[in-house]
Amino acid sequence: MADPRTPTASRPWVLPAVVVAVLTLVLLVAVAWSSDGDAPAAPGAGPGTTATAPEDADPGDAPTDVQGPAEVDTAAVERRDPDDPLTDGPVDAPVVLVVFSDYQCPFCAQWSQETLPEMREHAAAGDLRIEYRDVNVFGEASERAARASYAAALQDEFWTYHEALYPEGETRSEDELSEQALTDLAAELGLDVEQFTRDLGSAGTADAVAANEQLGLDLGAYSTPAFLIGGRPIVGAQPTQVFRDAFDTALAASRG
C-alpha cells in the first residue's frame, strides 16, 4: 500500500469518479449562485443536521491535480464573517482561501504541515483570509475533533489546537480523538478545560460544525482536502507552488 505521506507531486494519478462529481457539482453550484445570488439549499440541510456523502464516495481518494479552470461565484462560500473563529487574516483581505478538511485525513495533515504556514504568512500580511471548514468524511472521530477545534477556537486558540491535532504533519489515531483525549489535549495546551468541555458538548458548537460540513458536501467535497482560492477550485494536497501561483494570480486579479 502506498505511503500516504508520499508527496502528491510524485504520485501517478488517474481521475477518480469522485473528482468528476466534484467538478460537476461545482459547476452546478456556480450556475445556481450566479442565477439567483443565493446558495442552493441541500435537502435536510440546516442547524444540527448531519451531512452524508454518497455511498460510492471514497474518503481515501486523494486526487493529485488541479481541477479547473472552472470558477464559482463565491459569495455564499467566502463568508467573511468577522465573528467566525475558524479563520486567519483580515475580513476584507483581497483573496480568500476556503479549506475543506478532515482531522483523520493524512493528506490534510500533509498540507497543513507543508503549505499552510506560507498561506498564514500572507494572512499576516493582510493579503489573504483563510476560512476552515471541516467536512468530516471519515466519520465520528473526525466530527469530535472538529468540535474540539471549534471549542478551542472559542478561546482564540484554533490554530494552536489545529496544529496539535496534526503532530509533525501526521494524523492522530481514533483513540487520540476520543472526547477524553481531546479534553486532555486542551489541558496540555493551557486552555480553560471547564469552558472547553462545556463548548465541546454544546448545541452551538455541534450546529456550527454541521453547517460547515454541509457547506463542503454541498460543493461536492467528498474527498479531502479540497480548496477554493480566489474562487478557483483545487483538489488534493498539491505542492505549495500550486497554492503560491493560485494566490499570486488571485491577488493580481483583485488589484485589476
UniProtKB/TrEMBL annotation:
InterPro entries: Thioredoxin-like_fold, Thioredoxin-like_sf, Thioredoxin_domain. Residues 51-252 form the Thioredoxin domain. The keyword Transmembrane applies. It comes from the Bacteria. Residues 38-71 are annotated as: Disordered. SUPFAM superfamilies: Thioredoxin-like. Keywords: Disulfide bond, Membrane, Oxidoreductase, Redox-active center, Signal, Transmembrane, Transmembrane helix. Belongs to the thioredoxin family. DsbA subfamily. Signal peptide: none annotated. This is Thioredoxin domain-containing protein. The chain crosses the membrane at residues 12-33. Residues 38-65 have a biased composition (Low complexity). Pfam families: Thioredoxin_4 (PF13462).
